[in-house]
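Hi U.,

Before I forget, here's the chain from the pilot set. I'm dumping it here mostly so it's searchable later in email.
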Amino acid sequence: MSNKDKRTQLNEQIPRFCEEVRCIGHDGNQHGIISSREAFSMAQDEGLDLVLISPDAKPPVAKIMDFGKFKYEQEKKAKEAKKRQKVIDVKEIKLTAKIAQNDMNYKVKRAIEFLEQGKHVKFRVFLKGREMANPSVGFTVLESVTQMVEGYATIEKAPFMDGRFVSMYAVPAKEKKKN
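Structure:
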């Protein structure tokens, strides 16, 4: 479908597009199935626009309305929906299968800071070379991470294989543990 097809058909474009339309007045009254030229003249008499609402219907549905006001209200609704939309920030913590305990403690500490800020955390254990033959090492690392973040996070997605990685998703817990 091209950009021209996606645009809303209105006023003089409608008679070229279809012969008859189901016409709805600006106040919601049904005018029934009438010729598109007649519907366009009714819209002109009222000083409004004829807008093709549903071009795929049989017959197509057109409504008499103030198109500028309609477009403004739609943009306003879209902006309002965007304001209410919550953006989820995902932080990634990379680990290795042979990570030292103090390194793991530091990375988990950083992850807890992210979780306390309300961010989601994705833990990834990278499997090198022969570690791919035994991915249970990665699952073991993530099990110990799970125990360390207990109380701060809820594990949304249990550990799973993702190519050369063993991954796990954690989201902030509802009630955070106090130190």
